[in-house]
């Protein structure tokens, strides 16, 4: 079913998962037309007490629909989508609210499949509905992870998901990043020099390619190609977690000329990319309905796991999405207009933030912002080596592993200084992927590179103004200490 | 936190689960008022493209609201519940659609907590929102199950969930049932006679107490008390999966005098019951939002697992439930009216079914129906020993384990005969919990007790008529062979 046989990546637990015996009965039941069934266990749909579900949503009209929408004036155009008990909606209430298998309703799958093809043209992939990226990524970890397996990840990443795999027995191997995100050569080095005594060689890479959380970095096309080649060479699965894909910025603040970076799945001739998408940043986090794009074999495994755990996504979200992309909704062109508008909006916010940052923070000479091209975050480098109490014991410690500087401690103090001044930031330490000290390279401890804060431009202008002037003040006061 | 310390039941995997480091940051952030945050990673809620969410639902007015509703006439009373961006709804869209932790929104939790207290008065328990019973029960299995653990279950049960735990390493031990459901004395026998060589003694019982799937049985109050005493004596956790609780029948077809059987959680002074509830049968399966009632320690573990997997329930369902129980919705008295109406409706359907069964099936003398007191299913005993080819090798095989009859094979043939006649039924074999033959009692093989079909009265009257007359015909034809 896949171009390359990748079934050896499937975990022992997933292999033990059997389709439920009931499915076999339904298969037998469909062998003849007009079968009468006394077998089903579903409540009669005429008893569902819901007659109609409606959503009043923004209308993506005009050149900048998001800018118009956020004003919330009564004249902002809206449209109503939804479903009635029997239709004529795309997914009538009576149908939407029945049990389905883990794959969800075909109507919703179809809408999402069209979306995926429009943006990614994946060579030979199918979609699986999920309950958002947390659900999706942790399901991928269950699908590929045996206790004792090593997985690669960006050295700073969304730690909640990385941590979620640890109780299951996954051991994380961080890959060095620079301002452009994960460095392919560093990944290659890990794989080439892998010490078999350490256990099985990593066979999965978990990465966030656009507007990475927390570093805001977006992988260049060249890096993506190199990483994919490495995945082929070392037989890796790439779990591409891309919630900020649709928050990529246009080239200019007023433009709608966003060029979306080619996703890993778009270049995945082997079927070794499992791409995870979300509506949390496009619609709202409470959607809890996203999707995975993968090869058909992994799709079947994901559906089996869904049937054995969370079950299929909620009907309300499936109605919402089916209608959003249907004839009464935005349809794909309206969706495209909305997400390009979102890209413009986030770029405007980012530009506003960076201007303030230059005035209030960079002017201290104690910190610099790494400008993102997508997403919500500015990775902010603190020039911790300028602190009077900074120590670097590099001389005389060649070959020694572990931290050489007091970067970690000073950053903790700076974090506390910010709190004392009334400002909350996200310290880099929260996002670091722990590595086995025995196998970290001498002189390359992540503890010496924790001199970053993750800042966001998601707040109001007032928040950004107060926040950044507080940060400038806190830096000056701390570096004077 | 619990009356009895039950923390030793928590699995190794669950113990390894750590609260995310980000939570600690938010805790620090709340130590002073008026903190400014550049730390959050949530999209600004003014960008959510949803202005209003509404649900037109049945109005539970009149004596028999479900009977009125299923007619679907335009005069059937309805009411509209929902939320706007900023309220004044119970859970405004902007709030509902943000990220929350695994426990969900406090507004929804509060509504469900009141519901639980009205029906169960649990001694010292809290609720956790879930994504329905599949999600909830499998999370309980992850919470309590180590590889190699033994769990007890009704010998016939909803096999999809039991099967879901097998890849995780759970070994199932079936408990003998009779027409009244799980037999406490049989459970006691298993626990008293447990052979340590077999591995750890069972420490979890998974059971469906009302309108059990597939047997339709409802445990008597006496059995419930005995089972709870056994749980105390042998230190068991009871996972009480009760989706049919609100489908308990009134004493008379026209009455609303349903007396709800006391749940295990209502008698749970120790905190050893984890009760699982669903809206799938009360509202609709597509809801995918239910809840667990448990002690506070297990609640915390369940929230941590939710944060590490599915994440919190969808906003649309949380809006629906918050408003359903709120001032514009049914409120608890309206809900009570609706569920009592459902009990009446299912009893009417069941009575209709049993009348037909007497005429079309029981009249053959080849099968009998075991009348349920709740739920959707009639467990139908086939008098397989009346078949001309029935064999029972009991004589001469005393002490031998394994099946003594050809019950299984004949039932497979009968199932095929039904299919050939155009009828789908659910064979008992689908629901049986496999046991280790080495430890099954001589002369007590479940293979000799597979002479049941699970039938349902969820279909239309037409379906029941055609289905049951087909079953009568199939039985006559098969037993004449």
| Poorly predicted tracts of residues of chain A | none
- In the sheet with the most strands of chain A, the strands line up as 4-12-11-10-9-5-6
CATH-derived architecture of the largest domain in chain A:
3-Layer(aba) Sandwich
Number of domains of chain A: 2
Number of helices of chain A: 14
Ends distance of chain A: 63 Å
Which CATH class of the largest domain in chain A? Alpha Beta
The general outline of chain A is globular
Structural class of chain A: alpha/beta
CA-based gyration radius of chain A: 25 Å
Name the CATH superfamily classification of the largest domain in chain A. Answer: Type I PLP-dependent aspartate aminotransferase-like (Major domain)
Question: Average pLDDT value of chain A?
Answer: 94
Oligomer: homodimer
Helicity of chain A, in percent? Answer: 25-40%
Strand content of chain A: 15-25%
Compute the number of strand runs of chain A: 17
Most extensive interface = A-B, 114 and 114 residues
Give a short account of the largest sheet of chain A: 7 strands, mixed
CATH topology label of the largest domain in chain A = Aspartate Aminotransferase, domain 2
GO biological process, one term (chains A, B): lysine biosynthetic process via aminoadipic acid
Keywords (chains A, B): Aminotransferase, Pyridoxal phosphate, Transferase
GO molecular function (chains A, B): 2-aminoadipate transaminase activity; aromatic-amino-acid transaminase activity; pyridoxal phosphate binding
Cofactor (chains A, B): pyridoxal 5'-phosphate
């Amino acid at each position: 079913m896949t171009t390359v046989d990748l079934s050896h990546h499937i975990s022992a637990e997933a292999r033990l998962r059997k389709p439920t015996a009931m499915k076999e009965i339904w298969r037998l039941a469909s062998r003849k037309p007009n079968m009468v069934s006394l077998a089903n266990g579903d409540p009669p749909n005429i008893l569902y007490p819901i007659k109609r579900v409606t959503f009043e949503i923004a209308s993506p009209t005009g050149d900048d629909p998001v800018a118009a929408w956020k004003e919330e004036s009564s004249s902002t155009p809206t449209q109503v989508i939804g479903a009635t008990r029997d239709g004529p909606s795309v997914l009538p209430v009576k149908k939407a609210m029945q049990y389905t298998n883990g794959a969800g309703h075909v109507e919703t799958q179809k809408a999402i499949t069209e979306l995926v093809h429009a943006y990614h043209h994946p060579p030979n992939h199918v979609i699986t509905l999920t309950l958002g990226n947390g659900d999706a990524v942790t399901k991928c970890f269950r699908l590929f992870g045996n206790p004792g397996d090593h997985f690669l990840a960006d050295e700073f990443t969304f730690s909640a998901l990385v941590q979620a795999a640890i109780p299951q027995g996954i051991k994380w191997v961080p890959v060095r990043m620079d301002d452009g995100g994960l460095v392919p050569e560093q990944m290659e080095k890990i794989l080439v020099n892998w010490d078999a005594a350490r256990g099985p060689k990593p066979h999965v890479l978990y990465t966030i390619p656009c507007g990475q959380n927390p570093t805001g970095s977006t992988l260049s096309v060249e890096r993506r190609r190199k990483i994919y080649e490495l995945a082929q060479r070392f037989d890796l699965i790439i779990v591409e977690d891309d919630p900020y894909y649709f928050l990529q910025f246009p080239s200019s603040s007023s433009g709608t000329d966003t060029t979306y970076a080619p996703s890993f799945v778009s270049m995945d001739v082997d079927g070794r990319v499992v791409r995870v998408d979300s509506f949390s940043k496009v619609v709202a986090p409470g959607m809890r309905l996203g999707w995975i794009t993968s090869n058909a074999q992994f799709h079947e495994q994901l559906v089996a796991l869904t049937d054995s755990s969370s079950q299929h996504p909620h009907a309300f979200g499936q109605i919402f999405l089916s209608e959003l992309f249907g004839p009464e909704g935005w349809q794909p062109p309206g969706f495209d207009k909305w997400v390009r508008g979102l890209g413009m909006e986030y770029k405007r916010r980012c530009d506003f933030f960076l201007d303030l940052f230059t005035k209030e923070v960079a002017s201290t000479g104690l910190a610099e912002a790494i400008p993102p091209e997508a997403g919500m975050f500015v990775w902010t480098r603190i020039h911790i080596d300028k602190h009077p109490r900074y120590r670097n014991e590099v001389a005389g410690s060649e070959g020694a592993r572990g931290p050489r500087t007091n970067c970690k401690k000073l950053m903790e103090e700076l974090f506390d200084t910010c709190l004392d001044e009334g400002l909350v930031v996200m310290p880099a330490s929260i996002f670091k992927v722990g590595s086995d000290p025995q196998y970290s390279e001498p002189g390359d401890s992540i503890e010496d590179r924790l001199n970053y804060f993750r800042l966001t431009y998601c707040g109001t202008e007032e928040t950004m103004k107060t926040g950044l002037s507080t940060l400038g003040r806190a830096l000056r006061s701390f570096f004077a200490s």
